[in-house]
UniProtKB/TrEMBL annotation, chain A:
GO molecular function, one term: RNA binding
Gene Ontology cellular component list: cytoplasmic exosome (RNase complex); nuclear exosome (RNase complex)
Segments forming domain RRP4 S1: 104-170
Organism: Chlorella vulgaris (Green alga)
Annotated InterPro entries: Exosome_RNA_bind1/RRP40/RRP4, KH_dom_type_1_sf, NA-bd_OB-fold, S1_RRP4
Protein's UniProt name: RRP4 S1 domain-containing protein
UniProt keywords, alphabetically: Exosome, RNA-binding
Coiled-coil regions, chain positions: none
Domain of life of the organism encoding this protein: Eukaryota
Keyword Cell membrane listed: no
GO BP annotation list: CUT catabolic process; exonucleolytic trimming to generate mature 3'-end of 5.8S rRNA from tricistronic rRNA transcript (SSU-rRNA, 5.8S rRNA, LSU-rRNA); nuclear polyadenylation-dependent rRNA catabolic process; poly(A)-dependent snoRNA 3'-end processing; TRAMP-dependent tRNA surveillance pathway; U4 snRNA 3'-end processing
Record has Nucleus as a keyword: no
TrEMBL record, chain B:
Domain Exoribonuclease phosphorolytic: 31-171, 203-268
UniProt source species: Chlorella vulgaris
Protein name listed in UniProt: Ribosomal RNA-processing protein 42
Gene Ontology MF: a single term: mRNA 3'-UTR AU-rich region binding
Gene Ontology CC terms: cytoplasmic exosome (RNase complex); nuclear exosome (RNase complex); nucleolus
Gene Ontology biological process terms, A to Z: exonucleolytic trimming to generate mature 3'-end of 5.8S rRNA from tricistronic rRNA transcript (SSU-rRNA, 5.8S rRNA, LSU-rRNA); nuclear mRNA surveillance; nuclear polyadenylation-dependent rRNA catabolic process; rRNA catabolic process; TRAMP-dependent tRNA surveillance pathway; U1 snRNA 3'-end processing; U4 snRNA 3'-end processing; U5 snRNA 3'-end processing
Domain of life of the source: Eukaryota
Amino acid sequence: MHVDHRRGIHSSATVRCRSPSTLATITHSAAVCRMESKYQALGRPGEGTVGVVCVGDVIEPQANDSVLRGHGTLLRSGSLVASRCGRVQRWNQLVLVEPLAGAYAAAVGHVVVGRIVQVEATRWLVDIHATTLAVLPLSTAGGAVRKAAEGAVDMRSILVEGDLIAAEVQAVRSDGQVQLHVRDAVASKLPPGTVVDIPAALVRPQRKHVHHWAATGIKAVFGCNGAIWIGVDGGSSAAVPGIEQVQAVVQAATAVRALAGVGQAITPAAVERMVP
Amino acid sequence: MAAPLISQGEVEWITAGVSYNTRNDGRKREDFRHLKVQLGMLAQATGSARVQLGETDVIVGVKAEIGVPDADRPDCGRIVFGVECSPVASPAFRGRGGDELSSELARALERSMYPGPSGRGGGIDLSVLSIVSGKTCWVLHVDALLLNIGGNLHDAVSAAAQAALADAKVPKVQVVQGEDPSDEPDYEVDDDPSEAMRLDASGMPICITVSLIGGHCVVDLTVQEELCSAAAMQVAVDASGGVCGITKRRQKGIEASLAMEMIEVAQRAAAQLHTALSSSLAEQQGQQQMAVG
């Protein structure tokens, strides 16, 4: 596994202290070990803000009043223990474990890549690999399409079922429904390209979610929902992609799959290191 | 089954990639994904195999039962094919959702593997399954379970069926005639596995689906690529390269000259797949014998 020592990420040989509780011995199966070694490149508890724990791992040895118990944790004989595999998140006093696998949990501000699965009168339903379909209302889809509200424009002339879009999570309602936002519905539609699906936990919110390779004229959108879109740069889908572009995209897609296969966080910088 | 969705951009992309001989996962047009075969997955079955072809995951079990032969072929055994779609593979398979796909796959399997009305052309010599002519024979139930759908189901199911039949050991049966010749004879089924008969599946054909994307022949399509292809031809090819059966699939027609090219592509791909499958089978059967010995 590639180890970046500058960031303080430890190698897989690191031996960890584990709570001697029975819970840990029973649940710490081989599968958990595999998962742990796969994702340990993401970091360790106590080494900065993120850390990966397994079921039974002690997060806080002395869980006094300064710690609020969040999702995925439980109190055992005075210490805070993880009850599921995942990444430790600390929000002031609140400590919770965010799962590494499973459906994507949307958060406001995330850039996501989704697919339109249903067209309704004033909104589109979008598959973003979450537990429910996300909603892209017409009202948040930019001024160019406002006419559609009056029935002057056909919704399907803007986005049809199957179309891929890059959008931003605008709100997550209390019932879990995700509302998306795009500046321009027409421009949000992604040109010819391909999508690589990876675990959502490997893509963190970052400053830039779009990366351009100017030399070959391709770009990639790193969706926080684990959908990485790679394809031609430029809005128009008129031109047929060239052989250099196809080869560069396949190279980048292979790099993303390889990085995800060893549990490395997927960032534009990481992919660019493999595909200059 | 609700068809998966694809955008126009992705269709253009895949079509362009195929024309440059570079597919999205880096394969060339005539490359297969990695084929992984595991024998003896099911302890209760006469023979079983799990085949993973990329994302596609199929388990096939063979169960031998004593039954009655067909009236028009009294000296032959029977093979019954069945396919079941697991709801694990897709939520669309809940209830009766997978019936259409499973009956299509079962029919395709039967067409490519079962002998014609003359009793010839099948990959397996059915006469070895006969016990008493016209009265009893072995009936092999070949049942496939689709665990994950990652494209190219037909080829994966046919490879798995071949592997499972090669893994099958049909118990030895002795017919014991009663004292009075008019009595019904008794059967003694020998449950000693070392006495059991292995079926010779080496002559069985393997299905290769050759699809057309933008006028080019492509094998082993992923789900996304299958959505871009309008015509496909399923060619059953045996180990010696002979074509045993051809079925045309999907909506569009195929030009005759292109059809010949597709058959040649299928023969090339089948030769590779047969070699990979037989070496994998030989290796695993050798390991099983070592374990027994």
